[in-house]
UniProtKB/TrEMBL annotation:
NCBIfam families: DapE-ArgE (TIGR01910), PRK08596.1 (NF006370). SUPFAM superfamilies: Bacterial exopeptidase dimerisation domain, Zn-dependent exopeptidases. This is Acetylornithine deacetylase. It is an enzyme of class 3 (hydrolase). It comes from Scopulibacillus cellulosilyticus. The keyword Cell division does not apply. Belongs to the peptidase M20A family. Its cofactor is Co(2+); Zn(2+).
Amino acid sequence: MTTLTEQIEIKLEETQDELLQLLEELVRFPTVSPPARNTTEAQLFIQNYLEHLNFKTEKWDVFPGDPNVVGIRKGTDSDRYNSLILNGHIDVAEVGDDSNWTSSPFQLRKENKYVYGRGAADMKGGLACALFSIKLLTELGIELKGDLQFQSVIGEEVGEAGTLSCTEKGYTGDFAIVMDTSHLNIQGQGGVITGWITVKSKQTFHDGLRSKMIHAGGGIKGASAIEKMMKVIQGLQELERHWSITKSYPGFPPGINTINPAVIEGGRHAAFIADECKLWITVHFYPDETYEEVIKEIEDHLYNTALADPWLKENPPEFRWGGKSMIEDRGEIFPSLEINPDHPAVVRLSNHHKKVTNEEAVIGMSTSVNDSGWLGRAGIPAVTYGPGQLEDAHSVDEKVSIHELLDFTKTMACFIADWCNTRKERE
């Protein structure tokens, strides 16, 4: 008698071309972000695919022209058996000058052991494989006792938190897999938050008065907001160095928790003393930290920096943190995610990975970020596990190994059938 793993392998071998055709269909949709607002047709395709697999679906606009799609296939004994969320983003990175590509970014090209196209690795490959793994189980007649939920979300490439929108609507589960690029490693992540720091004068002065501000006896208690921002940047550098010495987390090289002064905007005209300056920063933090904790550390440190300067003491920096879109808000948040290697779902996923690939699963931390932190923040145990390598994501001639796609599909099918047919652990 053949095992389920063997049945899946045989079925996938017979239908491999169909899997690649599905990926080809998804790559054909130019869901580039930015500019975004272009995912409706792709999401309708996924919604239709899910409904043909007996999912009940919901679609709603997170932004006009960018809807989320969530499908749920109820298990036959939902109250007693584990539920599972499969999460992935439908948007892809911008292409730039497509003349640098060997072929059209939105026409899947198969060459040797790889397929090429925008989103092949990040992460339409993961979406296609997960959808196809469900199709395989359906065609094999495999019963699922627990609920299976599929989330196709928008906006991950520009911090638009389509996954956050899912959790805000109450979608939850006993475990979640974000099928983003991880080279089939099981991963958690650090976090990222952006912020705007503003230094602003209460008064505006003509350029001709600068000499009265900087020389003794000038009589004007004023300052350039740009020059005062230099002190703020120096304060951030001091805090960054302090973090690199005092903080660490297993799986991360020292000092990866950085504060990057990414963009600076200031002044109104060459004939004026700059009365306002804004600094856009990107902050990386460790998995055992929340963005609220990191925000407080930065604000406390900069307020103390301001107290040491007579002008900044009276004109302290102002802060605006995060946002739900780099396009709309010029800000984003990616919460961190810790993983428990001993969680029953992680153990089972690792076991199925080994059975399929004949290699031990690598459990660790990603150096990148994705939406998995939003699921963890909602109290859902989660990991990132998907095909493709980070160096191929966002690249010209983006590619993914066909072998890796097949291994991922088999692993997902086996894990779904196992986890959704495992009784919930009652506390």
